[in-house]
Amino acid sequence: MSICYIALGSNLDDPFAQANRAIAALTQLPHTQLVEVSPFYRSKPLGPQDQNDYLNAVIKLTTSLSPIELLDALQSIEKSQGRVRKDNRWGARTLDLDILLYDDLIINSERLTIPHYHMKNREFVLYPLFDIEPELVFPDNDKLSDLVAKCPKNDMKQWIA
Ligand code: ROI
Fold it and tell me: Which residues contact 156 (CB under 8 A, 6 or more apart)?
């Protein structure tokens, strides 16, 4: 079994409901166990500011799905929750599920970049990841605790449902 960390983000159509639906869907994935869900955070949008705050969280899974099989499964959950993929890389979304880490693999392919690009300076990824895995070390030996210490919290708060 491989250990994976998934970032969840939502800022449209009742993010709290989106997050809970996504977590329920993750518990139904084949060959996969949900291990832990971080606290939910409310973060300021990175990118254009004329969009809602985000709900962000991180989920730890064990799986025997391959990275691409896991990506396909996550994209199908996103799609089933109304995600429209087009020219909105920096725009609002109902649900984003990104693979942050997959064991100690480093992957740079057309569909997948693992560790997830920019994760090391995004407060809404680092803090929830730290909540569930404070001792985590990245494949390049960076320590999560060092990155968290250097990352401003940018007014991120606990999500109050
Ligand atoms: N901003 C925040 N705070 N949280 C996100 O999950 C998030 N996701 C994105 C962009 C649009 C870059 N901004 C975000 O994809």
Answer: 41, 42, 43, 44, 56, 123, 124, 127
CB 111 within 8 A of CB 68: yes
Residue among 12, 51, 54 to mutate when testing ligand 1 (max atoms within 8 A of CB)? 54
Residue 39 is encoded by which pair of tokens?
Answer: 């606290």
Structural domain total, the chain: 1
Write down the pLDDT at residue 88.
72
Residue 64 Cα, ligand 1 centroid: separation in angstroms?
A: 28
Which residue's C-alpha comes closest to atom 3 of ligand 1?
A: 45
| Angle at the Cα of 155 from the Cα atoms of 150 and 159, rounded to 5 degrees | 115
Q: What is the CATH number of the domain that holds 13?
A: 3.30.70.560
Q: Which domain holds residue 41?
A: 2-158
Residue 89 is predicted with a pLDDT of 74
Task: Tell me the DSSP string of 28-40.
Answer: T-TTEEEEEEPPP
Q: Residue 108 phi/psi, 5° resolution?
A: -130, 85
pLDDT in tens, 61-118: 999 999 999 999 999 999 998 877 666 778 888 999 999 999 999 999 999 999 999 9
